[in-house]
Design a protein that fits this description.
single chain, 487 residues, alpha+beta, Amidase signature (AS) enzymes, 2 domains, eleven-stranded mixed beta sheet, two-stranded antiparallel ribbon, globular
């Protein structure tokens, strides 16, 4: 019998087995999770909006449902939800002070799916302002610290969710990703995450408080699962996947194709450890190469180069344009006009990504259409590449978790890569490799750096073949181990 405060780091799959056998109740799991949060989260600050009373009620209902013979995918499992998702009766602020008092009347579609699957929602997790940072801090809820090193960031924008999982605050969490917001926190905190194919998972109700709650199709952003094992990602993705019922008029499920392979030796993997825009730190390169060696030793077909790979420099430029032109569309008029003024002052010779971000802020619809046409060419290039390969293995960011940096001048921030400084937002280029064409990507923890920080890699798969990188993540977990609890 597992004792009190010992269930917290088991997988959702293991906890479900224990619940079905009667070894533990949902009430017991929920009380343990709440006790751990109350004990440990003062130092981490991951759960920014606790919802313990409703969680206890949901746990009692889950136990009663199981006693009646019911068995749903997440029945009785304690989980958390990123703050940006609407939950009826709880604030949704996106970390913005002007939205401090906004309380939605309805749940986001993904919160509804968690509830329908029987999950017990413990509360909401911290985010950066507007979800627009690689760290998670804001003046309403404060700073989320990395469970491995409180002086470092847990990542963003799903940093609260990753930190909660690494700390044992629930078995699963849901987040979102446009600039690595699922993958980067997972990499920094040593957990798993999956960025689904764009459009696979409905996002209604994951919107800023000022935006109408409608079933819109987002251009780059996705909602996705986070967990402590690869198999748990698949469990939660199966709950989340499918279009919005408002779009179809009725609930509609989606059937994803099976993984291309079941055995490690059958996978064909292209390995990338360098990007033309920004260097890769020694710690991250070692992580990528460790996984590449495990794949090769397991009989997988591993290549380091392919003429089929779309140009990464152009991909970064297209991603930057699409990402930042969309991001500034919701800026207040004064902030937008300041970006336009700064862009007008740029030298024509300045071809840096910082300059591209400024120019994207004032781009025309014609400019956007031209960038979108370039994206379609890249998508076709990826189709051709995935005829020869099953997965692309590459970094998530150039470094492990970095020290907190709350400089208000975000374009003045720098990221230190092995002693050399680079523009802060240039580290997004690795996230953009999968985001710009809309491809699925699974973040996999691969161990610790010599300094004792978590490090991970991403496995990028073919569009709507999410089960292929997810399956490879499972096989790698068996070979290299997976999540480790912070020491």
């Amino acid at each position: 019998m597992v004792g009190f405060m010992e269930w917290s780091f088991l997988s959702a799959e293991e906890l479900s087995t224990a619940l079905r056998s009667g070894e533990v109740s949902s009430v017991e799991l929920t009380e343990e999770a709440i006790a751990r949060i109350e004990r440990d989260d003062k130092a981490i600050n991951s759960i920014c909006v606790p919802d313990f009373d409703r969680a206890r009620a949901a746990a009692r209902s889950a136990d009663q449902a199981r006693a009646r013979g019911e068995d749903r995918p997440l029945l009785g499992l304690p989980v958390t939800v990123k703050e940006s998702y609407n939950m009826a009766g709880l604030p949704t602020t996106w970390g913005a002070p002007q939205h401090r008092d906004f309380v939605p009347a309805e749940d986001a579609v993904q919160v509804s799916r968690l509830n329908a699957a029987g999950a017990v929602v413990l509360g909401k997790t911290n985010v950066p302002v507007g979800l627009q940072d690689i760290q998670s801090f804001n003046e309403i809820y404060g700073t989320t610290n990395n469970p491995w090193d409180h002086g470092r960031t847990a990542g963003g924008s799903s940093g609260g969710s990753a930190a909660a999982l690494a700390s044992g605050f629930g078995a699963l969490s849901i987040g979102s990703d446009i600039g690595g917001s699922l993958r980067t926190p997972a990499h920094f905190c040593g957990v798993y995450a999956h960025k689904p194919t764009v459009g696979l998972v409905a996002t209604r109700g994951m919107v800023p408080p000022s935006v109408p709650v409608l079933p819109v199709e987002l251009d780059l952003a996705v909602a996705g699962p986070m967990a402590r094992t690869a198999r748990d990602l698949t469990l939660l993705l199966d709950v989340m996947a499918g279009p919005d019922p408002l779009t179809f008029g009725v609930a509609h499920t989606v059937t994803l194709p099976p993984a291309r392979h079941e055995r490690l030796r059958d996978f064909r993997v292209l390995v990338l450890d360098e990007h033309p825009i920004i260097p890769t730190s020694a710690a991250v390169r070692a992580s990528v190469n460790r996984v590449a060696d495990v794949l090769a030793d397991g009989g997988a077909h591993v290549e380091r180069h392919s003429p089929l790979l779309p140009d990464l420099t152009e991909a970064a430029a297209v991603y930057t344009h699409l990402h930042f032109s969309g991001a500034v569309a919701s800026y207040p008029a004064e902030a937008y006009e300041e970006l336009v003024r700064l862009a007008a002052g740029l030298s024509a010779d300045d071809q840096s990504l910082d300059a591209a971000r400024m120019r994207a802020a004032s781009s025309s619809h014609r400019d956007w259409v031209m960038a979108n046409n370039r994206r379609e060419l890249h998508r076709h290039g990826w189709r051709q590449l995935f005829a020869e390969f099953d997965v692309v293995l590459c970094p998530i960011t150039p470094t492990p978790a970095f020290p907190h940096d709350h400089n208000d001048d975000v374009f003045g921030r720098r990221i230190d890569i092995d002693g050399v400084e680079y523009p802060y937002f240039d580290q997004l280029v690795w996230a953009g490799v999968a985001t710009m064409p809309g491809l699925p990507a699974t973040a996999v923890p691969t161990g610790l750096t010599p300094e004792g920080l978590p490090v991970g890699v991403q496995l990028i798969g073919p569009m709507f073949e999410d089960r292929t990188p997810l399956r490879l993540a499972e096989l790698l977990e068996q070979k290299i181990g997976g999540f480790q609890a912070p020491q």
